[in-house]
Structure prediction request, 146 residues.
Amino acid sequence: MKSEPDEFSIDDLAAAPASRAPWTGIRNYQARNFMRDDMRVGDQAFFYNSSCPEPGIVGIMRVCRTAYADATQFDARSEYFDPKATRDAPRWLHVDVAFVRKMRWIGLAELRQHQVLADMRLLQRGNRLSITPVSAKHWKLILRME
DNA sequence: GCCAACGTTGGC
DNA sequence: GCCAACGTTGGC
Prediction:
């Protein structure tokens, strides 16, 4: 799961009440569907820093609530406001995540050095999705890279 | 700031 | 349903 660290960092997550936070602001249907359909309480995810000088994985978090309506879509003052969303038919959902731990920074270039990760969705050419699945194989390898 | 890649919009 | 135009993402 990608975040721009200037917007929301892993330290922000760790410092949040109970070290939990809603993953707000996802406005892409595929990313939304991954949260809605594939993420369950207890699932783990890498925290990935994007759009920053040193993009890469910086830690691990855990899903602590399944997908529900993103409140920012209803807030006209929010940058994530969606005039087409209604309370009865929300368009945008998110899970809640909990801080697990920080990892050493594993940058994009280092990730790309591993043959095993060549088919990881995050690293695919042209991938812009901010949420992508991680296979067990990829998860284990990245843990071993620490 | 550039630009490749991809998603969304809206006219037809 | 097609597709051109436009917007966004995100590494570099």
Notes: Residues 29-38 of chain A form the longest helix (10 residues). Chain A is about 20% helix and 25% strand. Residues 28-30, 125-128 of chain A lie near DNA strand B (CB under 10 Å from a C1'). The CA atoms of residues 44 and 61 of chain A lie 6 Å apart.
